[in-house]
Write a structure and sequence with these properties.
The chain is built from 16 helices and no strands. By secondary structure, it is mostly helical. The protein starts with a helix and ends in a 13-residue tail after the last helix.
């Protein structure tokens, strides 16, 4: 069963991040003579796609773990499945990035300085927050900062799995609120604790609370869902105007002004669950967004490569001035989407299947046993 509206939101969250970075690439094209700089004004905080991701992640993890609460070996299975889902593609992309840093450090600017800090590189592969030489708490592949938060959330949630669904969400609330409070009140904390104590982690809790409410019977009506969606969009639009300037989105303002509207959007997506056959019957544009939602992780990880490649192609072929800015933006975003779909289909999915078979052999055996019985020749499958 699928909540396909949530899948569409995953696609939207990834596209927001892609658009945010594409605007930066368009600015670099302007510097290289493509045309005037893009107007910095914005309708939504496009970087808030990360916040939407965090709320969705909190929801999905609690919602999809219904068979693991209190189950023997539930914690190990949960962590195995999460590792299989997140680790292979991230490690592969990070290795590609590392190879570029070794071969062409001039292409990566400050990130190439990490070659002199092997401990920080290793910490990034292990999802452990560590400071770069410039003081930024980021892994070698900068986008991995969000995965450091995700991995921390998975660990906390795994602890709570033995407490039942309500107990797990209560545990998350206690742990995250306490951690954030400590981070706000106690200066000089060690780097990992200071990183995990950022108020942005409360966005996972918002999603987890929604999942608990949904499992307890919360089903917003169509009218309420429209109202929630409208309120969420208005909230994000206000955040785009209030959180302007360096550091404006730090601290409690980000989960309050961006995380809460993101939570409203996820609540608006809580329609009835549908079988795969029902999703296949929806209009093609909607199905396309559902497919892109499935590939949202790949889109998030590979889009910087696609954006920069698209930028260089446009500039070197002399197309940038004619297309700048909106045509160039459209080409770069389209290239990112195509790259993500290809990576999802031919790299991410096979890697995830392989990793799950290695990390949870019992699950692989169960899948084989549950395989459909072949239909004899000449007999119609119902």
């Amino acid at each position: 069963m699928i909540l396909f509206e949530v899948q569409i939101l995953r696609a939207a969250a990834a596209l927001m991040v892609v658009w945010h970075h594409a605007r930066h690439e368009a600015g670099l094209m302007a510097v290289r003579g493509a045309g005037p700089a893009l107007d910095p004004g914005t309708i939504l905080p496009w970087w808030g796609g990360v916040d939407l991701f965090f709320v969705i992640s909190g929801f999905v993890i609690v919602h999809a773990s219904k068979n693991l609460f209190g189950a023997p070996g539930g914690r190990a299975r949960f962590l195995a499945h999460r590792a299989a889902r997140v680790v292979p593609l991230y490690w592969l992309v990070s290795l590609v990035f590392l190879a570029v840093a070794v071969v062409r450090p001039d292409l990566l600017g400050d990130a190439a300085a990490l070659l002199r800090a092997p401990g920080t590189i290793l910490a990034g592969f292990l999802f452990w927050p560590a400071a770069r030489p410039d003081g930024a708490i980021q892994p070698l592949y900068g986008l991995g900062w969000t995965l450091n938060y995700e991995a921390f959330f998975y660990g906390l949630f795994a602890i709570g799995l033995g407490f039942g669904r309500r107990g797990a969400v209560a545990w998350l609330a206690l742990a995250l609120v306490t951690l954030v409070t400590v981070g706000l009140l106690v200066p000089g904390l060690p780097v990992p604790i200071r990183f995990w104590a950022d108020p942005i982690v409360l966005e996972f809790l918002l999603g987890a609370g929604l999942a608990l409410a949904y499992r307890e019977g919360f089903r917003p009506s169509g009218t309420l869902r429209l109202g929630l969606a409208f309120a969420g969009l208005v909230g994000l639009a206000l955040a785009a105007r209030l959180l302007v300037g360096e550091g404006a989105g730090d601290g409690v303002l980000r989960p309050l002004l961006v995380g809460v509207p993101a939570c409203l959007l996820v609540a608006a997506a809580l329609g009835p669950e549908r079988a795969a056959a029902q999703v296949a019957a929806v209009p093609a544009p909607v199905r396309a967004l559902v497919v892109l939602g499935d590939a949202s992780y790949a889109l998030y990880l590979v889009h910087p490569f696609a954006l920069r490649l698209g930028r260089e192609v446009l500039v070197r072929l002399g197309l940038a001035p004619a297309l700048h800015p909106w045509g160039g933006l459209a080409v770069m975003v389209a290239a990112s989407v195509v790259a993500a779909l290809l990576v999802h289909r031919f790299v991410e999915r096979p890697l995830t299947r392989w990793a799950r078979a290695v990390l949870d052999p019992r699950d692989a055996q169960n899948r084989v046993r549950a395989a459909p019985i072949p239909v004899p020749p000449g007999r119609r499958a119902d």
